[in-house]
Amino acid sequence: MTLIRLSLTDFRNHAGVDLGAGPGLVALHGDNGAGKTNILEAISLLAPGRGLRRAPLAEMVRDGASGGFAVFAEVLAGEGLAPVALGTGIEPAHPGRRLVRINGSPAATTALGDWLAVLWLTPAMDRLFVESAGNRRRFLDRLVLALDPRHAQHGNRYEAALRARGKLLAGQPGADPQWLASLEAQLAEHGTAIDAARLSTLAALSAELAAQPGAPFARPLLTLIDAEGAPRTAPWTVDALRALFAGRRRIDAAAGRATAGPHRDDLSAIHAASGRAAARCSTGEQKAMLLSLILAHSDCVARARGARPVLLLDEVAAHLDPSRRAALYERLAGQGGQAWLTGTEAALFDAMPGPVTRYRIAGGRISAG
Known about the structure:
Layout: E1 2-11, E2 14-20, E3 24-29, H1 36-44, E4 69-76, E5 84-91, E6 94-102, E7 105-106, E8 118-121, H2 133-147, H3 151-171, H4 177-211, E9 220-225, H5 238-247, H6 249-255, E10 266-271, H7 283-305, E11 310-313, H8 322-335, E12 338-343, E13 356-362, E14 365-368
Parallel strand pairs: 3-12, 3-13, 8-11, 11-12
Antiparallel strand pairs: 1-2, 1-4, 4-5, 5-6, 6-7, 9-10, 13-14
Helix pairs in contact: 3-4, 4-5, 4-7
């Protein structure tokens, strides 16, 4: 998958940007605060979800603008396919509502996943293994979404049913059992789809990771675990998940939340070479495991969808020694597809094999070089 053109209007610190790129590596360099990450964030909005910062839409509007922003791209979704036009943004009259257009026609946000898969690694993700289970679930669900665009629909409907069940249990101690059963049937339907997709993705990832050489990036061993820390090996069935929710109504009403189910699962990672839990590994080891995971997942998407996803690697090069940096560039160039990388110095990208598209960013302005 390749963005051959990217256009931004009033997005973050960019009043207007129009740039092109081809397959291969795209290097963006400039001082801190110049707007490099903002460009990656704009690209991330061309896939389902809230983008790499998960920021409110209103925060993305450029200071001094009228209250709206637009992100537009022409995308080659695979070999031999005609370019597709993807656009998203907000209008001043509706600052909280995100608009999406595909080839000029209105579309749902989830429909973006049919055309473009985007994976990213940012400095904010360095603490993924020591932060909350919710962050790791969201990370895993983004990986699933790149393989299965329908995953977002199941997630949205599951969350809606979960909120409705919670309100019913909180507001009515003797809540209508038929209405509860209906909501729990929806939870079971979408929850089993979510669970199966997560387990399938982890199985595919584990196979890719096992096939890769251990050097120069550390290999993680991945497991899905439940709220009690027990490994999840077999997927939920609809009947079993429906029974779980039905059996925990009183517990969930007292707790004020649903205390078990796919929304409580967590992603566990262990350093394959040392056997240490990722949370107990050094910062460098955690970064290396994340990078290894993202690269393996790119291979999974290429195998499953017949087109490699767009990679967004924010300030990754600066945290690698020269040998690992060169190894990363060789890997990215050799696997094909398109990868966007940011760094403060142009010299960080000197070792990149071609083809490379280079841009310098300064004060919201972009120039080639």
